[in-house]
C-alpha cells in the first residue's frame, strides 16, 4: 500500500445536509471518481470526486463525502481510499460552512471554467442524497440554482405545459440545442431540483433553421407549471435553458396524455418517438380501461383496503389465458409496487365459468387451470393524504397499458376481519407476509382506533356510596344468563360493599340489560350496566368500564368464572394489601372436572434463547397442588384478577395492538410489571372457569389469521423491549 498523500488545499467546504459535505480545492494528483472515506480512522462512508487540470497545469478537485450523521461530527482526520487501496489524507477541515453560495463564489474566483463540471457533479450528489439521506435539506437546491444561474445560457422558450394525474409534467416549446432521448433536466422553481425526462424534437416552419420544436415528458412528480421560472438542460456545448413564455398555455386537467399522443407523429427521431409513446400510454387519466381491451385480458376486484401510513391490501382476479400481461403494478402518489412479483394466487372456478362462453376467451382457457385469483400487499410511504387515489396498471405485451381504479375501504374492524379471511394461510411465504405487510398494517390501523367510549351508563339495584372494590364483568357474546353470576356474588358477604359493572360489548344479546336489571333488583346488588357496543373483547370492555368504576381496586371477572366457595375476594384483598405495591392477584382456576386450568404463568427459555410462556400444571388433578401461600409468577389470569384501578388504567393505555384477545392478557401482565408492578398467584383460593365455544364459528378463518398476526405482534413488541 502506498504512503498517504497529504498535499491538498481546501478552498471551500460546504455542508449540504446532515450527511453530505462538499469540498473544493487544489490537489497534486488526480482524484479517483469514487471510493471510501474514513473519519478519524473509524467512522466510514463513501465519497465521489471530480478532478481536472487548468490551463496552467494546476490540478483542482470537487469531492462529495457522505457519512451518516456527519453534521454532528468534528473529525480531525479525513482519509480517502480508492478501490486500489491508495490513500489520501486531507488537511484538517476548518471553516466548514452551510451556505452553498460560498462554493459558487469560490469556483467563480478560482476556476470559472469548471462551473459546468460543478453543476454536473452537484446533480450527481443530489441524486445520491435523495436516495440515501433521511434529512433532506434545501441547500442542495440552492447550490443547483446558484450554479445553473452562472453557467446556463438562454436557448429557447417553453410555451405549453400539461400536468398528468400522477403529478408529473409535459412541456412543449422550441430550442436550438435540446437533446433527443432520456436525460435529466433541471427545473428552477421555488426549489430547484433535477428530474428525469424524455425529450423529442419536431419541425416547426415558424422557427429559424437552427431551431426546432421540442416536447419533453417528465417521469417524476414536478412543480406546478405556474411556479416554474426556468428549465435547464445539458446540451452538447454546455448548459442551456428555456425561458417561460409570457403567454404560456397550461392544458386543462386530463388533457396532457391526449396531447402527447396527438404530437407523437411529429417527433422526428424514431427511437425517441417509441419511448415517448410508451410513456404516454402508461399515463393513467382516471378511467377504467381494462374492459375496453380487444385482447383476452380482464380483471376484477373483490376488495381493496388501505391503512394510511402503512399500506394497501388488494384481492381480486386476473384472467389472462394467453399471457398478454407483463406486469401488474399498484400505483398512487409516491407508490409504484409490482404486485405480480409477490402475490398469492388462488383458484377461482367462478371466473373460468363466467368467461368460458365469451368470444374473446372461448377456446383459449385450459380446463382445470383456474388460478385466476390473487391477494397482494403494497407498502406506502408516510405522509400521503387520507384521500390519495390508487389504481392498478396492467402492462401488456404490445407496449400498451390498461388501468383499473381502486376504491379503497377504510380500516374499519369489519374490513380488517374480511381482509384476514382472504389471506392465504397456506402460502409458503405467510410468515414473511405477516411480518412485512399484514402485521404492520393491522398495528397501524388498531393504534389509531383509540379508546372505545361507552354509549350508555345505567345504575341499577341497591346503591353503594363508597364501593370497596369495583367488579368488572365483561360480556362479549350472546349470553343472557349473567343472573347466575350476580346470584353467586350476592350470597357472598365479601361483595356486600362492592359495585358490579356489567359491560355489554359487541355481540351481546338485546335482552341482556333487562336480565341484569331484574337480577340487580332481586339480589339487591349495586350494579352499573355499561353499554360499549364497539368493544370486541373483554379488554376493550374493561377499558370502556374503568372511567365509571369508583373503587380503588378492580376485580376483573369473566362471566365464565364461577365461585365455589365464599370469602375468596377477601383472601385476594389481603394479599394485595400485604404486597404494598401495584400487584395483580389471581386465584387457582379449575376446569369443570376440577383439574387445573391456571396455576400461574411462567416464562421458560428454550435452547435457542427464545422465551415462551407456559401455564404451569395445566390439566393436572387439583390434588396435585401442594402450594398454599401466595407466589410471584410472570403472569396472572385476567379472567379473575384483583389489582389497583390506576395500575390497570395505565397498563391498558399502553397495551399493544392485537386482533384477538389471546395475547392481550399476557401483554397486560408484562406491561404491569414494566410499570413496577408484579403478578401473584394465590394457590389455596379456587374458582371454576367454564369452557366457552365461540358463537361465531363461521369466522374461524379470520381468527386463525388474526392469531398468527397477534403472535407476530407480541413477539415483535416484547423482543424490541427486551433489546432496549
**Main pleated-sheet profile:** 7 strands, antiparallel
Q: What is the CA-based Rg, rounded? A: 35 Å
Structural class: alpha+beta
Instruction: Give helix % range.
Output: 25-40%
Protein name: Glycosyltransferase 2-like domain-containing protein
InterPro entries: Nucleotide-diphossugar_trans
Keywords: Plasmid
Please give a structural write-up:
Helices cover 25% and strands 33% of the residues. It has 724 residues and is of the alpha+beta class. The strands form seven sheets. A seven-stranded antiparallel β-sheet has the order 1-2-5-4-3-6-7, covered by helices on one side. It has a seven-stranded mixed barrel with strand order 8-9-12-11-10-13-14, surrounded by four helices. Helix 13 packs across helix 14. The longest helix is centred in the C-terminal third of the chain and has 24 residues, at 700-723. Residues 131-135 have low confidence and may be disordered.
Write the layout of secondary structure elements.
Elements: E1 8-15, E2 20-27, E3 34-39, E4 43-53, E5 59-66, E6 78-81, E7 87-90, H1 101-110, H2 115-132, H3 139-151, E8 153-163, E9 169-175, E10 181-188, E11 193-202, E12 212-218, E13 230-235, E14 238-250, H4 256-263, H5 270-281, E15 298-307, E16 311-319, E17 325-332, E18 335-338, E19 344-346, H6 349-355, E20 373-379, E21 390-396, E22 401-406, H7 413-422, H8 430-447, E23 456-461, E24 469-475, H9 482-490, E25 499-504, H10 512-523, E26 526-531, H11 538-545, E27 553-557, E28 561-563, H12 568-579, E29 583-590, E30 596-598, E31 601-605, E32 611-615, E33 631-633, E34 640-644, H13 645-653, H14 664-674, E35 678-689, H15 700-723
Helix pairs in contact: 2-3, 4-5, 7-15, 8-15, 9-10, 13-14
Amino acid at each position: 500500500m502506498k504512503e498517504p498523500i497529504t498535499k491538498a488545499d481546501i478552498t471551500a467546504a460546504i455542508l449540504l445536509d446532515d450527511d453530505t459535505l462538499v469540498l473544493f480545492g487544489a490537489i497534486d494528483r488526480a482524484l479517483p471518481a469514487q471510493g471510501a472515506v474514513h473519519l478519524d480512522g473509524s467512522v466510514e462512508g463513501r465519497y465521489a470526486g471530480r478532478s481536472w487540470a487548468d490551463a496552467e497545469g494546476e490540478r483542482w478537485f470537487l469531492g462529495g463525502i457522505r457519512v451518516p450523521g456527519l453534521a454532528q461530527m468534528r473529525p480531525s482526520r479525513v482519509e480517502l481510499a480508492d478501490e486500489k487501496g491508495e490513500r489520501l489524507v486531507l488537511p484538517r477541515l476548518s471553516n466548514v460552512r452551510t451556505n452553498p453560495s460560498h462554493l459558487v463564489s469560490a469556483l467563480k474566483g478560482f476556476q470559472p471554467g469548471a462551473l459546468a463540471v460543478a453543476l454536473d457533479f452537484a446533480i450527481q450528489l443530489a441524486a445520491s442524497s435523495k436516495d440515501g439521506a433521511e434529512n433532506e435539506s434545501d441547500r442542495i437546491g440552492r447550490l443547483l440554482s446558484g450554479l445553473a444561474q452562472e453557467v446556463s445560457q438562454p436557448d429557447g422558450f417553453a410555451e405549453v405545459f400539461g400536468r398528468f394525474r400522477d403529478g408529473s409534467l409535459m412541456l412543449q416549446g422550441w430550442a436550438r440545442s435540446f437533446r433527443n432521448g432520456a436525460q435529466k433536466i433541471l427545473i428552477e422553481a421555488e426549489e430547484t431540483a433535477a428530474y428525469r425526462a424524455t425529450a423529442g424534437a419536431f419541425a416547426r416552419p415558424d422557427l429559424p433553421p437552427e431551431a426546432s420544436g421540442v416536447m419533453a415528458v417528465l417521469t417524476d412528480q414536478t412543480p406546478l407549471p405556474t411556479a416554474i421560472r426556468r428549465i435547464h438542460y445539458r446540451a452538447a456545448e454546455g448548459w442551456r435553458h428555456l425561458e417561460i413564455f409570457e403567454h404560456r398555455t397550461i392544458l386543462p386537467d386530463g388533457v396532457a396524455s391526449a396531447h402527447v399522443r396527438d404530437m407523437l407523429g411529429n417527433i422526428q427521431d424514431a427511437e425517441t418517438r417509441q419511448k415517448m409513446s410508451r410513456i404516454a400510454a402508461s399515463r393513467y387519466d382516471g378511467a377504467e380501461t381494462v374492459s375496453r381491451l380487444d385482447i383476452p385480458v380482464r380483471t376484477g376486484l373483490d376488495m381493496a383496503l388501505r391503512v394510511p401510513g402503512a399500506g394497501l391490501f388488494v384481492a381480486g382476479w386476473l384472467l389472462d389465458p394467453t399471457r398478454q400481461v407483463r406486469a401488474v403494478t399498484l400505483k398512487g402518489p409516491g407508490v409504484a409496487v409490482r404486485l405480480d412479483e409477490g402475490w398469492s394466487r388462488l383458484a377461482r372456478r367462478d371466473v373460468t365459468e363466467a368467461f368460458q362462453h365469451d368470444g374473446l376467451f372461448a377456446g383459449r382457457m385450459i380446463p382445470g387451470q383456474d388460478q385466476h385469483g390473487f391477494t397482494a400487499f403494497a407498502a406506502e410511504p408516510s405522509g400521503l393524504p387520507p384521500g390519495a387515489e390508487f389504481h392498478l396498471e396492467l402492462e401488456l405485451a404490445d407496449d400498451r397499458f390498461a388501468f383499473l381504479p381502486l376504491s379503497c375501504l377504510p380500516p374499519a374492524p369489519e374490513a380488517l376481519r374480511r381482509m384476514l379471511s382472504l389471506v392465504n394461510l397456506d402460502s409458503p411465504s405467510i410468515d414473511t407476509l405477516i411480518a412485512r405487510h399484514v402485521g404492520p398494517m393491522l398495528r397501524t390501523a388498531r393504534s389509531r382506533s383509540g379508546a372505545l367510549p361507552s354509549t350508555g351508563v345505567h345504575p341499577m339495584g341497591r346503591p353503594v356510596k363508597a364501593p370497596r372494590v369495583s367488579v368488572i364483568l365483561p360480556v362479549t357474546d350472546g349470553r343472557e344468563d349473567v343472573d347466575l353470576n350476580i346470584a353467586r356474588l350476592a350470597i357472598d358477604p365479601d361483595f356486600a360493599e362492592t359495585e358490579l359493572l356489567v359491560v355489554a360489548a359487541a355481540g351481546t344479546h338485546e335482552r341482556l340489560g333487562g336480565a341484569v336489571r331484574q337480577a340487580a333488583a332481586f339480589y339487591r346488588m349495586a350494579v352499573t350496566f355499561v353499554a360499549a357496543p364497539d368493544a370486541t373483547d373483554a379488554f376493550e370492555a374493561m377499558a370502556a368500564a374503568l372511567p365509571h368504576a369508583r373503587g380503588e381496586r378492580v376485580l376483573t371477572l369473566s362471566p365464565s368464572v364461577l365461585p365455589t366457595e365464599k370469602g375468596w375476594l377477601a383472601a385476594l384483598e389481603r394479599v394485595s394489601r400485604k404486597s404494598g405495591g401495584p400487584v395483580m392477584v389471581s386465584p387457582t382456576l379449575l376446569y369443570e372436572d376440577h383439574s387445573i386450568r391456571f396455576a400461574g404463568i411462567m416464562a421458560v427459555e428454550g435452547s435457542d434463547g427464545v422465551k415462551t410462556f407456559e401455564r404451569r400444571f395445566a390439566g393436572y388433578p387439583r390434588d396435585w397442588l401442594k402450594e398454599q401461600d401466595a407466589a410471584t409468577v410472570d403472569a396472572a389470569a385476567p379472567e379473575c384478577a384483583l389489582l389497583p384501578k390506576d395500575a390497570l388504567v395505565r397498563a391498558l393505555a399502553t397495551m399493544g395492538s392485537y386482533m384477538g384477545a389471546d395475547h392481550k392478557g399476557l401483554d397486560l401482565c408484562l406491561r404491569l410489571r414494566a410499570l413496577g408492578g408484579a403478578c401473584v398467584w394465590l394457590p389455596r383460593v379456587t374458582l371454576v372457569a367454564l369452557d366457552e365455544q365461540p358463537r361465531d364459528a363461521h369466522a374461524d378463518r379470520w381468527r386463525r389469521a388474526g392469531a398468527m398476526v397477534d403472535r407476530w405482534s407480541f413477539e415483535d413488541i416484547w423482543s424490541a423491549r427486551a433489546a432496549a
